[in-house]
């Protein structure tokens, strides 16, 4: 079963007490099997009865602008 969500619906689950991480993954397999340098932004809603989890892989060259825009720090 394929389920498609719009970004407004997904982000509506992001709350002040959600668990958010930014991880520099370095060079690692991409979604179609190629190795590429990227980082990951993820959050876990920690809601009940449904605990939503989302992770997004982003090319490394886009990392600094995103970190600056949202005031995030990578886990090293």
User: Structural class of the helices, strands and pairings?
Assistant: alpha+beta
Strand elements, count:
3
What oligomeric assembly is this protein in?
single chain
Largest sheet: 3 strands, antiparallel
Output mean pLDDT. 77
Q: Percent range for helical residues?
A: 10-25%
Q: In angstroms, what separates the terminal alpha carbons? A: 36 Å
- Low-confidence segments: none
Number of helical elements: 2
Rg: 14 Å
| H-E order | HEEEH
Shape: globular
Our estimate of the beta-strand percent is: 35-45%
- Number of separate structural domains: 1
Strand order of the largest sheet: 1-2-3
Compose a concise summary of this entry.
With 76 residues, this protein is of the alpha+beta class.
Describe this structure in words.
It is a single chain. The protein is α+β, with helices and mostly antiparallel strands and 76 residues long. It has one domain. The protein has helices at residues 7-11, 63-70, and strands spanning 19-29, 35-44, 53-59. The protein has a three-stranded antiparallel β-sheet, with no helix packed on it. The model has no long low-confidence stretch (mean pLDDT 77).
